[in-house]
Amino acid sequence: MVGSINVVGGGLAGVEAAWQAAECGASVRLYEMRPQRQTPAHRTDKLAEIVCSNSLKTDEPGTAPYLLKEELRRGGSLVMEAAAATRVPAGAALSVDRIKFAEYITERIEAHPNIKVVREEVASLPDTGESVRVPTIIATGPLTSDALTADIMRFTGDDQLYFYDAIAPIIAADSIDMTIAFKAARYGKGGDDYINCPMNRDEYEIFFNALVEAKSVPLKRFEETHWFESCLPIEEIARRGVDTLRFGPMKPKGLPDPRTGEEPYACVQLRQENLMADAYGMVGFQNHLRYGEQERVLRLIPGLQNAEFLQFGQIHRNTFINSPQILNETLSTRKDSMLFFAGQITGVEGYVESVATGWLAGINAVRALRSEPLLAAPQTSAIGALCRYVSNVETKNFQPVNITFGLLEPLPLELRKKHRSKRERHAVQVERALKDWDDWVVNSLGKAKSLVLGY
Q1: Mind listing the domains of the chain with CATH numbers?
Q2: pLDDT in the model for residue 42
Q3: In sequence order, which residues have a C-beta less than 8 Å from that of residue 89 and are 6 or more positions away?
Q4: Which element (helix H / strand E) includes 146?
Q5: In this predicted structure, what is the pLDDT of residue 193?
Q6: Per the confidence metrics, is the pTM higher than 0.70?
Q7: Residue 412: predicted pLDDT
Q8: What pLDDT score was predicted for residue 45?
Q9: Which stretches of the chain drop beneath a pLDDT of 50?
Q10: SS (H, E, C) 300-314
Q11: CB 36 within 8 A of CB 68
């Protein structure tokens, strides 16, 4: 044992941080307030419970999300291991059975000899005046408790620590009318992994008008609403124009209706939620309508006229800090090198992005414990790009971000000239990133080459 660290929060970032620290030999106390205190979105007491979409986004080689996943896989990520073990069909996307996924991670964490799970709320940050300091990682995610949020505000001096996020409905599979809906993946990628509900122009206009006129749940807590652009409620998208849905979550491209052989005017996709295939989530249909309104409006979608809703869409608060003023690229805070933040609270958006910051924070917390220099991930890597963004981006309005090629270090001019197409340049960026990542993991962390390369 090399000593102890504390991880606050049992979500995706927290479990990854705890796992990496424990694997490095540290004794880890992982604090999770559920079930002692529940959140507005969680339903169980399991670690790493997924409350929004069950999709971890595309795992198609050559894409930025794939690169991020691959770096984590090569770094021995527990969450990526769990995702592989509980994967459900979703075309090119990596989607999981959310119940089995959480159960898998909970069992692995609780069985680790170096990890103790403590089921209690942490209401404040560690006291910097203590003579013996324990490295602490705050990974409380988008639903940080009120008490801890208040103390984080005291520490950061920032009173704008929130934006709103929304959850999509889930529908019982046997309530979907398959004489209307059809199975297919966009452009044939993945076979019949999605259920698709096609609309003609008249059906779309009826649905659109009902949606924009439907009553929403009022926002009571804050006067101002800060939506994350990549997770806008469906009704907010609709209010931006009559065709915004057809070019967004309801785009019909690559989904020809087998009855006509042509693409419909608009199309709603449903993604498998679990291995039993008895529940499907509405892709891109996060919303904050009243439950009765959701039932009325969503049943206007062809194929869903008798839909049984296992979960309605809902809204919840997401908390994040102004990381460029607070964090280093190592995810330690500038005011206190023994205090780290990880996950969505840092301003990364997305499950795998949260896992990535937890991975690095867990390793660096152990290095802090050993009084070793903290590590920044390679600049060319996806994890390095995310951490560079949240710690260094210059903006007056810091907003959460997903991994994209726009965050990665650009290719040298000679390579950009050599590889003219975007696809080629992206492939070269991925190849370069993974080579640099493999070398860094071996040289900086001392991990075996067999682990890094998956032998």
Answers
A1: 4-161+319-453 (3.50.50.60), 166-317 (2.40.30.260)
A2: 63
A3: 95, 190, 191, 193, 272
A4: helix 146-156
A5: 87
A6: yes
A7: 83
A8: 82
A9: 1, 131, 220-224, 448-455
A10: CCCCCCCCCEEECCE
A11: no
Q: Is the peptide bond before 373 cis (omega within 30 degrees of 0)?
A: no
Alpha-carbon torsion 48, 167, 165, 65, what sign? Answer: positive
CA distance readout (Å), 205 to 29, 32, 301, 322, 416 = 54, 46, 11, 41, 45
Token match 């769990």: residue?
Answer: 82
State which amino acid sits at residue 284. Answer: G
What is the amino acid identity at position 175? S
Q: What is the pLDDT of residue 308?
A: 93
CA distance 379 to 360: 14
Tokens of 328: 């280093």
The three-class DSSP label of residue 289 is strand
Per-residue pLDDT tens digits for 214-228: 998 775 443 345 666
Q: What is the pLDDT of residue 449?
A: 39
Q: What is the pLDDT of residue 415?
A: 77
| CA distance linking residue 422 with residue 406, whole number of Å | 12
How far, in Å, CA of 312 to CA of 394, rounded? Answer: 38
Q: What angle do CA 55, 61, 67 make, to 5 degrees?
A: 75
- Residue 228: left (phi > 0), alpha (psi -120 to 50), or beta? beta
Q: How much is the pLDDT for 427?
A: 92
Sole residue written with tokens 């996950």: 343
Query: What's the pLDDT at 30?
Result: 97
Q: How far is CA 137 from CA 51, 112, 191, 407, in A?
A: 22, 19, 42, 25
What contacts 78, CB < 8 A, 6 or more positions away? Answer: 15, 16, 19, 105, 108, 109
